[in-house]
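Subject: design request, 203 residues
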């Protein structure tokens, strides 16, 4: 059931560890997004062949820095954007650990991976540390990126407003989306073999 899966996936919203409580206290300090032109005009989920909306957002990379998709595309393409609903939740933790386990394959294929959620950069920094992730996480705390990529979902039944669907996009060196996948159910993880193959096929 979707609702049951969601309840498991988002349990952290009602429980909260010390790290999450700390993150909540400092959430208002998070840097604001500075999204570019295409961000505001993109409607619906992106498809293969679409131009990936450019954006900048806070980055949890062992510190709190800034991520720019435009710069990443220039220097690190193909870029893999893995959207997930929430840090510290079961399925999302398993997904990020699996990406970590397969990071060498993704890197050998030529890709650079970034995880994205609406969590604050402070929460994501703690999440990254707890899972020992060596790839970086992007904070979409203002929800502008999930809206631009068409992966916003709202669960009114449990009072959850505007979180990310689980989704993966591969962006090539021209800024085009060459692979687009979105889960119909938050309990479903991406096909990791398919993601590696998509990176290999991208420019």
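Subject: RE: design request

Done. Sequence follows.
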């Amino acid at each position: 059931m979707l609702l049951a899966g969601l309840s498991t996936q988002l349990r952290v919203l009602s429980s909260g560890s010390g790290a999450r409580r700390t993150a909540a206290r400092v959430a208002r300090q998070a840097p604001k997004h500075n999204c570019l032109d295409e961000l505001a005009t993109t409607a619906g989920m992106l498809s293969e062949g679409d131009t990936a909306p450019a954006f900048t957002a806070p980055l949890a990379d062992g510190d709190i820095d800034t991520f720019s998709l435009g710069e990443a595309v220039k220097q690190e393409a193909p870029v893999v954007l893995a959207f997930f609903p929430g840090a510290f939740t079961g399925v999302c933790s398993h997904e990020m650990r699996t990406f970590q386990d397969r990071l060498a394959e993704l890197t050998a294929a030529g890709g650079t991976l970034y995880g994205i959620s609406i969590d604050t950069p402070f929460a994501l920094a703690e999440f990254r540390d707890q899972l020992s992730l060596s790839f970086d996480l992007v904070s979409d705390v203002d929800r502008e990126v999930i809206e631009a990529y068409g992966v916003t979902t709202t669960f009114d039944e449990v009072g959850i407003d505007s979180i990310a669907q689980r989704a993966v996009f591969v962006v090539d060196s021209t800024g085009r989306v060459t692979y687009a996948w979105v889960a119909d159910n938050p309990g479903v993880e991406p096909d990791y073999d398919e993601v590696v193959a998509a990176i290999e096929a991208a420019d």
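The chain is about 40% helix and 20% strand.
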